[in-house]
Specification:
Elements: H1 8-21, H2 32-45, E1 51-54, H3 61-71, E2 79-83, H4 89-97, E3 98-99, E4 111-112, H5 114-117, E5 122-126, H6 133-144, H7 153-157, E6 163-168
Parallel strand pairs: 1-6, 2-5, 5-6
Antiparallel strand pairs: 3-4
Helix pairs in contact: 1-3, 2-3, 4-6
């Protein structure tokens, strides 16, 4: 479907649904450029690919990621937002990928990571540019689907993987 073929009514309908869900995460704006962004977001929502959103802080990258989630076939799955800058490097791997029981001292039971939790929905990675190079290297294979970490095995067996919206200022 060509971008110009996406009707404004569809964009307006998705915007209204987004606004109804949360007054804090509203999609607002009427400029032709913004409407084009929303048409592009509506089109990409139907693809099974990673979406890279880039912009200054406060420009609405998470709002746009939620818009894409709501417009996608994964809208009934979870929207999992992770602030990568807020995760200490020591916890980064276990928070994103989870861990198996006994993986380290104190791991009394297995815990699903955020990637597995988002397997039927959308994973939004905020502040990716603030991650250490070591953490970013650990992230790349997991989100690309290669080298599935232990906690992801269940989701992999079900043939699911999350859609990713990666943010960088």
């Amino acid at each position: 479907m060509a971008i110009s073929a996406i009707p404004s009514a569809m964009v307006r309908n998705l915007t209204e649904k987004r606004e109804a869900q949360s007054g804090l995460l509203r999609v607002v704006g009427q400029s032709p450029e913004w409407r084009q962004v929303l048409r592009n977001a509506t089109q990409v929502a139907w693809t099974d690919t990673t979406v890279f959103l880039q912009g200054e802080s406060g420009t609405g990258k998470e709002v746009l990621a939620r818009f894409i989630h709501h417009a996608s076939p994964r809208k009934h799955g979870p929207f999992v937002a992770i602030n990568c800058a807020a995760l200490p490097e020591q916890l980064f791997e276990s928070e994103l990928f989870g861990y198996e029981r006994g993986a380290f001292t104190g791991a009394q039971q297995a815990k699903a990571g955020h990637i597995e939790l988002a397997s039927a929905g959308v994973l939004f990675l905020d502040e990716v540019s603030e991650m250490s190079p070591v953490a970013e290297a650990k992230l790349s294979p997991g989100t690309a689907g290669a080298g599935i970490p232990p906690a992801r095995r269940h989701a992999a067996r079900q043939g699911q993987r999350p859609r990713h919206c990666r943010e960088q200022p």
